[in-house]
From TrEMBL:
EC number: 3.4.11.2
A GO cellular component entry from the record: membrane
Domain Peptidase M1 membrane alanine aminopeptidase: 271-475
Enzyme class: hydrolase
Superkingdom of this protein's organism: Bacteria
Protein name: Aminopeptidase N
Gene transcribed to yield this protein: pepN
InterPro entries: Aminopeptidase_N-like_N, Aminopeptidase_N-like_N_sf, ERAP1-like_C_dom, Pept_M1_aminopeptidase, Peptidase_M1, Peptidase_M1_aminopeptidases, Peptidase_M1_dom, Peptidase_M4/M1_CTD_sf
Organism: Streptomyces palmae
SUPFAM superfamilies (alphabetical): Leukotriene A4 hydrolase N-terminal domain, Metalloproteases ('zincins'), catalytic domain
C-alpha cells in the first residue's frame, strides 16, 4: 500500500516578528521519507522584544560558526553563549539522523547550497537582514522508536501516525526553533488518504479532495505554542464526538482509538471525566479552557503514558486493556486524563522558560489531577493513593546520590529528558501540597490565579511563580523556596520522647535527620496523629498540627498526653518527609494494621513500613507476612493492588535469597486461596490469578495454572483472554513445563500485534542459555528498536526460575561492555529502557556493584547513562542491605534495625 501524506505548516516563527511562513512536507510511505519546506518571513507582525536579541545571537553564531561546531553542539539552554537555535534539521541527542536529505534552502529568496550551509544538525546562515524568510525543503525519515512522527503498521498493513515531540523531536519532522520559550502559532495543512481521520492542535477542518483517494485538511492557525506540544495524528481511527458545556460555552470533544479498541462504556466514562475536569479547572484557575476543542486519541507505540499536545492529547493503548479495565486501572486512566487536561493551563497556556522549570507544568498537573479526582473519588482516598504510590517512589529516588532539586539546572536537552522523574512529578506535587498547608489553601489558590493572569500565552519561571504567590506576604517565600525547590533529598522525622510512670509523655519532641543521601533540614508544617485501640478498632483520638524546624523540635502540646497505641507523624500527609514508628506503634501495627479504619492513615502506615523495609530498618519477610495476613480484608482496591505488587517486589528483591522460594510459595498459596474466594469475575480474582502466575514455584501451583490455561479447571466468571493466556503460558515456560511448541501454538491463536510481543517475551523467558542469548543478541545488535519490543524482550530475558540465576550470570560483565555503545546508538527512551532494564538483577550482588563502580569511573559516559547505571547500582546496594537485615531478623527471630553491611564506594553523581 502506498500513501502520500503532505504537510504544510505556517506561522511557526511569528513571535520573531515576521509572520507568514510555510512548511510543506511531502511524505511518501515507500520509501519512508518526508519532504518539508519551511519559509519564515512577512511584513506586518508586531515586533517582539526578544527579536533583536535573538537575531544578534544568530548573527554572532552563524557568521562565526563552522559545520563542525554545529554537528557536535547539543541543544543548549537559551542563556548560554553557545546557543544555536536557528531552525534546522538537527540530529537528536543520541545522534539519530533527522533529515535523510535536504533538497533546498532559500534565505530571503536566495538559494543557498545545502552542501555548504547544512551541517547535518544545523543550518548556518550569513547576511541576515532585519526581516528574514527561510525556506527549507527536506526528506525526513519516519520514526519507529516513538520520537518524531511515529509510523505504526498493524499486522494487516493498516497504518497509523502520531507525533511525539517532547523534548525536542519536532525538528525531526520540520525545521523549527525547538525550545519551549520560543512560542509561535502553527498553521498546518495535511494531504493524506481520504478515508483517514486527521487531528492536530486546531479543530479538524472539512477535508477537500486532492487527487485520487486523497484529501487535504487545512487547519486554522493555533494560539502561540511551544514546539513540543505541536501535534499531528492521522490514520483510520474510530472517533466518538461530544461536547463539554461550561458556563454556556460548548467545547467540542473527540475521543478516538484504533478500530474496536474503545467500548461504549469507556467512551462515556472518559468523556464524563473530561467534562468534569474542564469545569473544575476553569473554576479554580480562574481561566476558561484555553483551546478551541479537546481531542483525546489512543495511539499505538506511544513512548510516554500520555502526552499533553495542545488540544490534541495522545494516550497509550495500555490504558485500554481487554477484555476490561480493572477499577484500579480506571482510576489511573481518569487521573491521566485529568493530568493531561491540567496541562492545557499548566504548560500550554503558560509554558516554562526552559526545562529546569519542568516542575512548573508536571508538578502542577500531578497535584491538580489529584485535587480534581478528589472531588469525585473522595479526598482521603485520592491522597492515600498518591502517598503510597507516586510519593513513595519519589522518596526512593530522592534517596539516591543523583537526587536533584525539584528546580535544578538543566544544561541541554539531552539532560532535560532525565528530568521526567518522580522528583519533578511526585515530589514537586508533594511540595505544592506543603506550600498550600504552609500558606493556607485560599492564598495558594489566589496565587495560582494571579500567575495565570500575568503570564497567559507566555512563559514563566520559578521567580514568576513565587512573585505571584508572594503577593502581599510580609515574610516572603524566598527562604521557603530555597529549602523546597532548590535543594535535593528528603529528611526523616522520628518521635523522641520520655514517659512518666502513668504512661503519659513527660517530654515529646520530633527529631529530623537527613535521609540516606545528604539533605538539608527543612521547616515542615505537619500533623501528629494519636490512635488508640477502641473495641478492636484503631481510632484517632488526638491530632496536633505544628511547625518543626531543625534537628530537634519540642512539641509542648504533647506533654502529659497518654502514649497512644499508634503514633503517626505526618498524619494527613501534609509534608514531604519520611516518618518512622516507635517500637510500640510497630508492635500495634503488626497485629492491628487491618483494624485502622481511616483510609489515608492506613495508607501512610503501609507506606512507612515499606520505607522502613527499603531502608533496612524493618525485616522484609515480616512485612510480607503482615501484608499477606490482611490483604483479603483491605477494602481500598488501589491500596490492595499496590500491596500485592509490593509484597511481590519484597519477595523478589528484599528478602534474603535463602527465603525466596518460601516467600514465593507463601505468596502463591495466598493468591490461590484468595482467587478461589474472590467474587466471580471480579478485579480481585483476576489480580490474584496474575499474582499466583508470577509467584508460582511448586508443582501443585503450576499444575493449577496449567489446568486453568487448558480449561481443565475454571474459576467462575474469570475470562481467559489472550493477555491472561500469555501470562499463564509464561509461568509454565519459565518453570520448564512448556516450551517452543506451546509458544508457537499460542501465537497461531493470537496473531495480534500484542500477541507477537507476548511471544517474543515468553520465548526470551525460556530457562535455556540459547533463549537468553537469542534475546540478548536481538537487543544489542538491532538499530531502530521499537520501545514495546524492547520492553517485551527485556522482561523475558530477565525472567528466570527460582535457583536459575546462573542463566544470566555471564551477562553482568557483558552489560558493562556494550551499554555505552547502545546508549549512543538509540534515542533516549529506548536507550534508557535498555540501560535500566538490562542492568543485572539480584542475587548477583557485590560483584555487580564492583563492576558498576569501575564502569562509572569512565570519563566519557553520557550524563544520562551515568545517572541510570549509578542509580541502578545504588538501588541494588539498598536491596542487599535490606536482605541483610532480613537475614539478621530471621537469625534473631525478631525484626530490629541493622547496620548497613554493603558499602557503596561509588558516587554516581560525582565522577567526571
Ligand atoms: Zn505531564
Amino acid at each position: 500500500m502506498t500513501h502520500t501524506v503532505a504537510l504544510e505548516c505556517s506561522d511557526f516563527l511569528a513571535r520573531y516578528g515576521p509572520t507568514s511562513q510555510a512548511i510543506s512536507c511531502i511524505r511518501r510511505e515507500e520509501p519512508p521519507a518526508v519532504r518539508s519546506t519551511l519559509s519564515a518571513g512577512g511584513r506586518n507582525a508586531p515586533r517582539q522584544d526578544r527579536l533583536a536579541e535573538l537575531r544578534s545571537d544568530i548573527r554572532k553564531l552563524y557568521t562565526a560558526g563552522s559545520p563542525q561546531d554545529g554537528e557536535s553542539m547539543p541543544w543548549r539552554r537559551p542563556s548560554e553563549p553557545s546557543r544555536s537555535t536557528w531552525p534546522g534539521t538537527p540530529a537528536g541527542p543520541s545522534g539519530v539522523q533527522v533529515a535523510s536529505r535536504v533538497h533546498g534552502i532559500e534565505l530571503n529568496g536566495r538559494a543557498l547550497d545545502p552542501a555548504v550551509c547544512w551541517t547535518g544538525s544545523r543550518i548556518l546562515l550569513h547576511d541576515l537582514g532585519e526581516d528574514n524568510e527561510l525556506r527549507v525543503t527536506a526528506d525526513c525519515p519516519y520514526a519507529a522508536s516513538g520520537e518524531g512522527l511515529q509510523r505504526t503498521v498493524d499486522p494487516d498493513g493498516t497504518v497509523h501516525l502520531h507525533t511525539q515531540f517532547e523534548v525536542c523531536a519536532a525538528r525531526r519532522v520540520f525545521a523549527v526553533f525547538d525550545q519551549p520559550d520560543l512560542k509561535a502559532p502553527l498553521r498546518l495543512t495535511v494531504t493524506a488518504p481520504d478515508h483517514w481521520e486527521v487531528f492536530s492542535n486546531s479543530p479538524t477542518p472539512r477535508p477537500r479532495p486532492a487527487g485520487p483517494s486523497t484529501a487535504r485538511w487545512s487547519f486554522p492557525a493555533t494560539p502561540p505554542l511551544p514546539s513540543y506540544v505541536m501535534a499531528l495524528v492521522a490514520g483510520p481511527f474510530q472517533v466518538y464526538r461530544s461536547q463539554a458545556v461550561v458556563r454556556g460555552r460548548a467545547i467540542p470533544l473527540a475521543l478516538a482509538a484504533r478500530a474496536s479498541l474503545l467500548e461504549a462504556s469507556e467512551v462515556g466514562e472518559i468523556l464524563e471525566v473530561t467534562q468534569r475536569g474542564i469545569e473544575y479547572f476553569s473554576t479554580v484557575f480562574g481561566q476558561e479552557y484555553p483551546f478551541a476543542k479537546h481531542d483525546q486519541i489512543f495511539v499505538p507505540d506511544l513512548v510516554p503514558t500520555a502526552m499533553e499536545n495542545a488540544g490534541c492529547v495522545t494516550l497509550g493503548e495500555e490504558l485500554l486493556p481487554h477484555p476490561r479495565a480493572t477499577e484500579a486501572l480506571r482510576e489511573r486512566r481518569a487521573e491521566t486524563v485529568l493530568h493531561e487536561l491540567a496541562h492545557m493551563w499548566f504548560g500550554n497556556l503558560v509554558t516554562m522558560n526552559w526545562w529546569d522549570d519542568l516542575w512548573l507544568k508536571e508538578a502542577f498537573a500531578t497535584y491538580w489531577a489529584a485535587a480534581a479526582q478528589a472531588e469525585t473519588v473522595g479526598h482521603r482516598r485520592v491522597w492515600a493513593t498518591f502517598a503510597n504510590g507516586k510519593k513513595a517512589a519519589a522518596y526512593q529516588q530522592d534517596a539516591l546520590p543523583t537526587a536533584r532539586a525539584v528546580c535544578a539546572p538543566v544544561p541541554d536537552t539531552a539532560r532535560a529528558a532525565t528530568a521526567f522523574d518522580g522528583i519533578t512529578y511526585a515530589k514537586g506535587a508533594a511540595v505544592l501540597r506543603q506550600l498550600a498547608a504552609a500558606i493556607g489553601p485560599e492564598d495558594f489558590q489566589a496565587g495560582i490565579r494571579r500567575y495565570f493572569t500575568r503570564h497567559r500565552w507566555g512563559n514563566a519561571d520559578l521567580q514568576d511563580f513565587l512573585a505571584a504567590m508572594d503577593h502581599d506576604r510580609a515574610d516572603g517565600l524566598a527562604g521557603w523556596s530555597e529549602q523546597w525547590f532548590r535543594t535535593p533529598g528528603h529528611t526523616t522525622v522520628r518521635p523522641d520522647f520520655d514517659l512518666d510512670e502513668n504512661g503519659g509523655y513527660s517530654r515529646f519532641a520530633i527529631r529530623q535527620e537527613p535521609g540516606t543521601a545528604p539533605a538539608p533540614l527543612r521547616d515542615h508544617r505537619l500533623a501528629i496523629g494519636c490512635y488508640h485501640l477502641v473495641d478492636g478498632h484503631l481510632v484517632r483520638t488526638d491530632r496536633i498540627e505544628t511547625t518543626i524546624a531543625g534537628a530537634h523540635t519540642e512539641v509542648p502540646g504533647m506533654r502529659g498526653r497518654r502514649q497512644p497505641d499508634l503514633l503517626l507523624l505526618n498524619d494527613d500527609d501534609l509534608t514531604y518527609a519520611q516518618a518512622r514508628f516507635d517500637e510500640r506503634s510497630l508492635t500495634t501495627l503488626r497485629e492491628h494494621i487491618g483494624d485502622l479504619s481511616d483510609q489515608l492513615a492506613r495508607a501512610l502506615c503501609w507506606g512507612t513500613c515499606w520505607n522502613m523495609v527499603y531502608n533496612a530498618e524493618f525485616a522484609a519477610r515480616a512485612y510480607v507476612r503482615m501484608a499477606l495476613s490482611v490483604l483479603d480484608r483491605e477494602p481500598d482496591t488501589a491500596l490492595r493492588e499496590l500491596l500485592r505488587l509490593r509484597v511481590a517486589a519484597a519477595v523478589e528483591r528484599l528478602v534474603h535469597p535463602s527465603w525466596l522460594r518460601t516467600g514465593r510459595r507463601l505468596l502463591a498459596d495466598t493468591a490461590h486461596r484468595l482467587a478461589l474466594a474472590a467474587d466471580a469475575g471480579s478485579d480481585h480474582q483476576l489480580g490474584w490469578v496474575r499474582t499466583m502466575a508470577d509467584a508460582a514455584v511448586t508443582r501443585g501451583q503450576t499444575a493449577f495454572l496449567c489446568d486453568l490455561l487448558h480449561h481443565v479447571q475454571a474459576l467462575p466468571g474469570l475470562v481467559l483472554d489472550a493477555g491472561l493466556r500469555w501470562t499463564l503460558l509464561r509461568t509454565l515456560v519459565v518453570n520448564g513445563h512448556a516450551g517452543t511448541a506451546e509458544i508457537e501454538e499460542e501465537l497461531r491463536r493470537d496473531q495480534s500485534a500484542a500477541g507477537r510481543l507476548h511471544a517474543l517475551g515468553v520465548r526470551a523467558a525460556r530457562p535455556e542459555p540459547a533463549a537468553k542469548e537469542a534475546a540478548w543478541q536481538q537487543l544489542v545488535s538491532g538499530s531502530e528498536l521499537p520501545l514495546p519490543l524492547v520492553t517485551a524482550l527485556v522482561g523475558g530475558f530477565q525472567t528466570i526460575p527460582v535457583g536459575g540465576h546462573e542463566l544470566l550470570e555471564g551477562y553482568a560483565a557483558r552489560y558493562f561492555e556494550v551499554i555505552g555503545e547502545l546508549w549512543d546508538r538509540h534515542p533516549y527512551g529506548v536507550a534508557r529502557r535498555l540501560a535500566h532494564g538490562l542492568y543485572p538483577r539480584p542475587p548477583v550482588g557485590q560483584r555487580v556493584l564492583d563492576l558498576t563502580e569501575r564502569f562509572l569511573l569512565r570519563p566519557d559516559l553520557a550524563p544520562g547513562l551515568r545517572e541510570t547505571v549509578g542509580n541502578a547500582g545504588q538501588t541494588m546496594a539498598r536491596c542487599l542491605d535490606a536482605q541483610a537485615t532480613d537475614l539478621r531478623s530471621w537469625q534473631a527471630h525478631l525484626p530490629k534495625p541493622a547496620d548497613s553491611v554493603v558499602r557503596l564506594a561509588f558516587r554516581p553523581g560525582a565522577a567526571r
